[in-house]
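[step 3/7] inverse_fold.run input=structure_tokens len=94
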């Protein structure tokens, strides 16, 4: 998780769970960065500020990162996580 949190300026984010569905937790600096945590995998729909974002999955158990195609706001549904473990998504404005 250290690798995940050192990959963005987490101290500029605030909890915004209202931007995520399906029981996911969300930290955001709206319009710039969104970090969603999915404790049991699955997918999540995020409410984003319109724009284009780079996206990636992060496996919280082993540190593996998987890049995703670019994301467009204002509403985006992630692909299903690679397994049913805990995963995080990171979206950064490009």
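[step 3/7] decode complete -> sequence:
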């Amino acid at each position: 998780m250290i690798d995940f949190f050192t990959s963005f300026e987490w101290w500029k984010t605030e909890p915004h769970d209202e931007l995520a569905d399906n029981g996911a937790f969300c930290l955001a600096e709206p319009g710039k960065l969104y970090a969603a945590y999915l404790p049991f995998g699955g997918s999540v729909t995020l409410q984003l500020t319109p724009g284009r974002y780079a996206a990636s999955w992060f496996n919280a158990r082993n540190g593996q990162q998987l890049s995703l195609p670019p994301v467009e706001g204002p509403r985006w549904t992630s692909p299903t996580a690679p397994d049913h473990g805990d995963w995080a998504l990171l979206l950064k404005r490009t």
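[step 4/7] annotate
The beta strands are 14-15, 25-29, 33-38, 45-47, 52-59, 65-72, 75-77, 87-93.
The mean pLDDT is 95.
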